[in-house]
Queue: 4 jobs
Job 1
Amino acid sequence: MKRRTLLQAGALSTGAVVFMLGLGWWQSRHSDEAPSGTLPLPIDRMSFALTDQHGDTVEAADWLGQPTMVFFGFTWCPDICPTTLSAISDWLEELGPDADHLNTVLISVDPERDTPEVLGDYLSNFDDRITGLTGTLPQIEQAAADFRATFRKVQSEDNYTMDHTAGVFLFNADGRFANIIDHHEDPRYAVPKIRRVLE
Amino acid sequence: MNRLLAATLLSLVSSPVLACDAVQLGTIEVEQAWSRASIGTSRPGVVYLTIRNAGTEDDALVSIDTPISGMPMLHETVVTDGIASMPHAMEVPVPADATVALEPGGYHGMLMDLTQVLKEGESFPVTLTFRNAGEVTVPVSVQGVGATDAGCSENNG
């Protein structure tokens, strides 16, 4: 028996179900109102400006007209970041050319280490449709605020790591927030969620 | 003795497929030990593996050691209220009659201060210390940067 694994999976899926139920309740109650502090702003109301791995400036308005998938992370962490990037690469591969017009974006929460060059080097190991964004700390803070995401530097003896929002945000082509993919979500559910914003 | 150790290490390097085989230590069985290729040595490396405790007494993995890391540690990725964090794990419980996985998104060995680049297809040894069962050294096969499992053709667990 994979007792611990089963327990973890059970707790996670219960948590995910409770979260999604809560999200459904929130959306059904507030669907006609402006988003408050819980969910990301619509993209057309975001005000961030960041730099991609090629050194080009990217602003929220650049994403409008195409559906968008965004997640926060950093390239230094050995476990969840490559795991999430692998999962997203798998989703993109499964979607094939359908995902060519999806803005797929990693926003680094570790601007000290993740320069555009470092991001580009790291992302070259994954699907080439993934854009990496970084910036100054205030720029990253603005982006996190737009997405209602959080991140925090955790210092240890001679190193630091970053706590950060783990979900993957999905937006429709007109910039409306659509859904969140939990980072542990089964690909059988993740890919259909992405397809819904591609339609 | 040193020559024997060197020979052992060399054989590990040339036989990554060993990582798919189970290594036995009393009633503890360790298998599918794998890592991801590193980009340089400035980022920490990772170790994942599966531990089966076929015995009737609880045990725990209390530390890991490897010559390729200046500071190997046990960590756990936890997601609380949608926030991912990576606290240091004092130990990984290995209950009686249970299988515990160090796997992506959960418990993992974090290899700080890499002494060499980890290249796909190579292998390195990791020594696991259990509270009761003692020490065992297992070969860890290095998979690609984006790998999500040990790459063993079949799960013999």
Job 2
Amino acid sequence: MAVFIDLNISYTADKKRLQNIIETAAHLGYSTVAINHVVDFQQKKQEIGKPQCISDLFEQFPIVQGKSRPIKVLNRLTVVVSEASHFRTTNEVKLYDIVAVFPKTEKLFHAACMTYDVDIICIAVTEKQPFFFKRPPVNGAIERGVFFEISYVAAIKDSTMRRYTISNAHSLMETSKGKNVIVSSGAEKPLELRGPYDIANLGLLFGLSEGDAKAAVSTNCRAALLHGETRKTALGIIHTVKKPQPTAKRQEEEEEEGPAVKRAKTEAM
Amino acid sequence: MVRYKSRYLLCELCVSDQSSLQLLDERAVFTAVKGAVSWAHGDYGAALCSVSFAVKYLNAHTGVVFLRCRKSHYRLLWSALPFITSVESRGQRVPCFFNCLHVGGTIRTCQKFLIRYNTQQLLRMLRHCHSEAERLEVRKAVLSCSVKSLGKEEEEEDEDGCGDEEEWGES
């Protein structure tokens, strides 16, 4: 049994609802979920804040269906880019486990695929894709290990959105041939989530083959996670962690030891 | 002798409020699924899926549903299931979603899977017990179900037992 991952759960300030969504996800069999913080610079007073501390959410994380481990929750940042100046790698960005961009124009899509240091590129699902997907940027993104994301919540909500989602997904599949595609929820309510096998089957409607559709909810998501980890660490080879509070203890020990040594010296003399 | 090959989809109806499951009946689920198929795949899909389509079983306690359709078109039916957001029953809309647990070739394999799945659920729910007394109570309830009905109905009763536990465990 594969490990299923849902990389897009919309962040709400309502803690209760967030807990509900995560519990439902655990019940459905997702072993990892990511809470998505969206930043759109076109709206006023938007800035990238620090991610919410995850251990605050639950005292005890719900157990995943069919496994004995508790669910893993991550933080994800999505930057809506409509101008080139919007996306910058700052220290705040590095605090998130996964970084995604939502390019609005073809130029920015090209830049996102080729140069931006991101893990996921979102595809529009609520409107007709404003530009065509061209081969070179898509191939470049696949080579760099960047993933394309289709969220299915709009398709569930509304009939016209569903048409946009399916047509945009198909036009992406034409160029990417089903490689490096992630299907994620984007759920705002617990009832908007769907089971992983249902999503794998829904992938068939999006033009994915059976194997690719299953990979889109399991292995590709894992690859995106690992790609995100390489940003935090030195290319995934070395990982540095601050030790919690060794200095205070050591000082105490030294203080205790110090006089003892002196005492020993004085005794010797 | 060649028989018609079918696929049985074992689905779970997930609702936010457990008590609203009691409102559902087989007809309501039938119309909801059929509506979703024709919504997603149009007349063509609805016509293909309606061949030997049936709701074989519905458990109003646990929300378990068996759907049957022809083997050749079950993917059409399955891909329409995620688009169901509510089931209308007795004039009330029950917001819910279908979670497909298992797809089998016979209803027997699905039943076997369901029993295994329900025992798993029971173990999951037992964690929520706060005291040893509660745990004993659950054990007694399960035993009383299975001893009462030996033979054929044993398995079905077992399910019901688990269903009660689920409701009880969450409260």
Job 3
Amino acid sequence: MSEKPKLAVYWGASCGGCEIALLDLHEKLLDLDAAMDFVFCPCLLDSKKKDLEAFSDGSIAVTLFNGALRTEENVEMAHLLRRKSKLLVAFGSCATGGGVPALANFTSREALLTTIYRDNPSVDNPQGIIPQYSTAVAEGMLLLTPLLARVKHLAREVAVDYFVPGCPPEPHQIWRVIETLLSGELPSAGSTIGCGELTVCDECQRTKEEKRITAFRRNYEFYPEPTVCLLEQGLLCMGIATRSGCGAPCTTANMPCTGCYGAPDGEDDQGAKMVAALGSVMDIGDTAHLSEDAIAEKVAAFLESIPDYAGQFYKYTLARSLLGGRAGR
Amino acid sequence: MKIGIYFCNCGSSIADKISVEAVIEASRTFPDQPYVTTVDFICSEVGQAQFVASLTTEQPDRVVVAACSPRDHEATFRRCLAQGGMNPYLLQMVNIREQIAWVIEEPLRATEKAISALRGAVYRVRLQEPLEKKQLEASMAVLVIGAGPAGMKAALSLAEAGRSVVLVERSPFIGGLPVLFDELFPTLECAPCMLEPLMGELLHGDYAEKIELLTLAELWRVTGYYGNFTAIIKKKPRHVDLHECIGCGECVEACPAKTGNCFNNNASERKAVDFAFTGVLPNVPFLMEEVCLRSVGEDCRACKDACPLGEGVIDLAEAEVTLERNIGSIIIATGAGLYEASQVTGMGMGALPDVYDALQFERLLSSTGPTGGKITTSSGSVPARVAIIHCVGSLDKDHCSYCSGICCQYAFKFNHAISTKYPETIITHYYRELIAPGKEAHFLLHGALNRQNSIFTRYARIGDIAVTRHGAGYLEVSLQGVTTAADMVILCPALVPAQGTDKLAALLDVTCDSAGFYGELHSRMDASRSTLKGISLAGACQEPMDIQKAIIEGMAAVGHTLAGLQPGRLIDIDPVTAEVESKRCAGCHLCSSVCPYHAISFDGEQHISQVNGLLCRGCGTCVTACPAGAITGNHFSNAQILAELEGLLK
């Protein structure tokens, strides 16, 4: 019996949702097991770093790497997996664009730690103890992996063969990716796979017409009309600036798209595309008789209805964007 | 790819600051290693000939010209490329004169910046693609909106030049506001008499056949583009044929239904079928459906039976019609109106008797008005004390922040008219500022100032003045504790754009300024052109002005129209337009909302947007707005712009 190609799944700074999505393959997992030898996955298998180190370089056929790079350990593992793998796939939003962890790039490491361990209202830490990279205890030194100055996406650190977007990637797309990678007919290197080529609007069944948005609204404020474009109803639906392929489950469930499949094909900066698009259809009313100051006030009031620019427009792609966050500069 | 850089010395203008040797040296590191040729004055005849000759010999694939602003000579050099056998859009210009040589003192730094800019241009030009201009036939017909002095003058002059004109007028008559007046400043000429030759020519002159006059008509929609607009016009029923009727008035005599005449402040009566006022042109009555007895179900046909010309003149069943006209260009001449004086508190407008705004008082003065020109108070007596309040709502940030420029002059005219009839009447002018510009206005100013019974009182804020009524009797004007009795108060409000200006602007997609007047292409250099190509502005719709200036503006608009479109000359359609890449469009409809030129339509079958290259002006709004990146701006593609940036920053 010839040896099955080896599969590794690893997580950097991630929530575990990508592994859950893999398990959501359900009975297809049996087909996966028949086709591949699942050799390394700390989340699902009892596999250790030393097991990985024992493989010869390039001996793992495919590694699905999810999560962003937050710590030096993440970086070390990224390099190790790169070395051991024929194909390294950035899997899920965090690995492709930095994801939610990358929103921390708006703040420094120090501020991050003091917020989490000392200042958050729910924290009870009267001595104000902040974790240290090294701590002396009776038994010796305790070491923690240092945080990087900035959260990175995988491709910023190592060469990535393919990108699979999604938070998490949809199971039917995961299966397509596995089939494609096993088929031997590989897509061109560096391409984004397991997705569509248009935007979510293509898959969203709601009726769309000309857009003139007079105010942004949030989900808790009203029950959206189920057949009309959510953006036209004032919800900040990211579908117009988000790559297709998910099948639009969120808008089908009357929730606006949050943009997890990232920038559309050929575009680099999802947030910038979204902001440019919204800027073109925000209707602040008649400005003919207003001074520039009065117009600026109206625009500012309109923008007040967006509570969190970065979280809205760069929820999944900040690390990869032109903007990139400002911490450490 | 062979790239040629043509470096213009511009005499010493460029050469003194930027070292061409350093540029040549640096160009060896540029992609495709362009050749560099220097020319002394590339825009001169000799320079252009050298340029074309070099292009013919070298046959480059792309050309960069490092010289002046593209605003100066991009068109020149594009023509040179065409002469040299190249597509003109394979040129990229770098402005090394205004943006570098003229603004940077230090030659080393200037040279460094020039090299960066040139590197950017070389990176960009490699991605530029040949584009082809399209040519189209244009309609020579012109739509003129508004038949006041400016519109009439424009329409008649265009007709004299052989153009077909569609003249759309919302009211039942022509002549605009001044035809309702008696005498005009500054020379006290009789208004209808002064306008009559123009109106007569327009209706019955040698070129009248070229003018299609549509009264009671309004523009409803415009599609298309400069050279080929389609105007949809809604024409309300007049019920009396404009051409068959001879204006004998028999129908008016016979009509049993009466109402107030809105053209006479509702102070006189009119019949359901009647003239707007005596002497109106066209001299044809119009029927007010809502007053006619037929509107309450009666089968009255008194007017039709009375008409001596027979059945064909009055059409009681006439309905609103929608007309479609193809035209090449448009002139807006919709005029102005008065600021609603009741908006200014303390003036008593609309609340107190004998308080008139200027237009109402003009009708009182007019021999065709409600009193036949007699100035009397509401109780029928001669007003012994008249107050004229200037600057009502003018120069006032709470109302209209500008000075209308004509009110002082007509206020002095009112002074003259009143004092001619009643020399004993005391006239008090309350004013904030007094102006009398030009070579003629001073006659009336001095007339008023020198008159024994004229009093001039200056106020600081309009809020300092209060017009009240003493019991049930005379009026009182109080200013800072001083109360003066008056039998009549005349208000001179600011001039504002005519009602519906904003609606028409939206319909035509032209801009309005902060005061609501149509925005000019340039307030000094192109004040009679709107922001949209092929649409000119004439008269007080552009800013407050008198008849003289309105007539001149009418002619200016004619000039633009005749210069722009000429018989036999095709119009060029610029190929710098946007294009939708159909396989990347997800049909979100975002772009169609943003196009200022209605150039984007939606293909319902394929579920994609499409750009009409004839309507597109290449502004790039949709390119930026498209969240899918499915729209490319020809000649300004993302790839070209990013390549230029990359070259600049290298």
Job 4
Amino acid sequence: MTVTHTPADEVKAQGNSILEVTKLQELVYELKIEQVMTKKVVTVSPDDPISQLKEVLRVNRISGAPVLKDGELVGIISIEDVLKALELGAISASVSEKMTTNVQTLFADENVIQAVTKFGRLGFGRLPVVDREGRLVGILTQGDIARGLLRQLEMDYREEEIHRYRASHIFEDIASDQTGLILRYQVQARNFARCGEAASKLKRALERLGAKPTEVRRVAVVSYEAETNLVIHTTKGGELLAEIQPEKIRIIAVDHGPGIADVEKALQPGFSTAPDWIRELGFGAGMGLSNIKACSDQMVFDSKVGVGTRLEVIIRL
Amino acid sequence: MACGADLMSDVLAFTHAGTLLMTGLTNPQVVRTAEMAGIVAIVFVRGKLPPPETIALAEEKGIPLLASRYTMYESCGRLYQTGLQGCGLFQLTADHWSQGDPHSTPPGEVSQDLCA
């Protein structure tokens, strides 16, 4: 078998890498420094001799440490400072003589992007992290950032896997004589800006459950048209309910008024009582119920003036 | 494939998944409709630009928005001329769904479903 590498593959591959970079960039802006920093900080005292500092760095396998005096951050010292001191034969000098006193710090509640920028600008190997009161709470290296990002990516990935598993296997994993999943959505009257939110959520749920795209579209059209009717025509809104079973989906839209006087007429394609402002938005052409009927295997439509309207649709999977 | 419509119910009734929608409406419900009908991109005709809430919803749903300064007729005509096909004879999308194959429905049987 030969595998041909087409330009389309390349575009796809590029597309993927762009996606991943975006996800990483997103994380850099989302994650807080406190989520990726090392919290257990090895510190030294300004009065410690360099000879002792050398041991602290060696035993802990670290390349630098913040200097604390009475709990306050007064400096930072690195292995480079130790080497310089050794060169000058000043191994018994104190930390305070060789440390950097003008310490650059990061705030724990800042985003990781701030740390990335600072590392890039200053070229330091590590930056102490302080809280807003100036207390040392951690230390951050570029390695910490890489590890933190990888950990978060892995967590996100695992969560997505778990979601997918849970959703698509629900009907196989949970055994009963008749398993059904009921989703209820409250729909507000006249709130056209939010019209479609319920249908959108239902569509997403079905995708998660692994329904076929054609089935998803039928349910989407039915629920969207039904939701639109609840928004446009009811006095107090209503409820959209979907009962999902392995072999069929039942969609019910119920409201408590005003009700329809002539149900037969309402079912005629093109008949509509929608006001002009709804028509200007591209709706209310009297095609809603026809569309619903066309997408369903079974439809029951019932209404009584002063009581309400009930639409029940069955879509076989 | 592409279609042009200012009536969202029509879009829901006859578009196929993977269709480009040309419309003169710019409210967020156009994006909702596109999401539900499986429209992959929207072109606003007559030089109309969508309001921020429409753009925000399109971003959320990952649906690209384009704009044309031509009228609906001319926008559609220009694209058709370059070889972008329409949705064919008016057929209720549900017919395809029930038959499984988009090309298996004879056109004659189509609109009866509408009047039933």
